[in-house]
Amino acid sequence: MRTLSRRAVLVVAAVLVVVVVVVVVLVVRATSGPSSPGDVTFAAGGAATSVGAGQFCDVAVTECDGDPEAVTVLRVPPNTPLAVTVPEEVASTPWQLAFTFRDAAGATQQGRSPVFPPGSTPTFTLVLPAASDQLTSAEVQQYGARITQGPNGLEFATRATWVLSVDDR
Predict the structure, then answer these.
(1) pTM of the model
(2) Picking from 21-25, 42-46, 121-125, which range would have the lowest pLDDT averaged per residue?
């Protein structure tokens, strides 16, 4: 019976170590939850702030995770546009900005940007309908692959959200 040279034993051992490491990495990735798709930046009046996703899911929106502390605050005076910049991981998927504001009568109103198709744009500038309107919150919503038929047509599941609370003093 022929014995292996010392070099051959070392090569076999190195290959075995690499295989074990690859298997461990694959198992950890497969069993860990979804990862956050990055930070969104909100900017207004010369100031800017970034925040990570408060909630994020896998693309099928079946396994989710979150960070309840992921909320940011920015001062946005009336008649000041809000610029939103999303990371490439979001811009490469359908996304939208949902927002609330107070109108001149003090009534809370809700609005939405258009849905941006995958790869169309990483930025959006929100301008409220009237100069006296006060933005109160904004939320970037990244859509996932899960689509269901709802009472008003097709409904897309939200895969991740980024929340801005507006300082309106």
Answers:
(1) 0.76
(2) 21-25
Distance CA 164, CA 5 (A): 64
Q: What is residue 68's DSSP assignment?
A: T
More confident residue, 111 or 37: 111
And the tokens for 70?
């992921």
Q: What is the CA radius of gyration of the chain?
A: 23
Domain total of the chain: 2
Residues 86 and 64 grouped into a single domain = yes
Residues sharing a CB contact under 8 Å with residue 75, sequence separation 6 or more, in sequence order: 44, 45, 47, 166, 167, 168, 169
Q: Which domain holds residue 18?
A: 1-32
- For 126-144, give one letter per residue: b (16+ CB within 10 A) or e: bebeeeebbbbbbbbbbbb
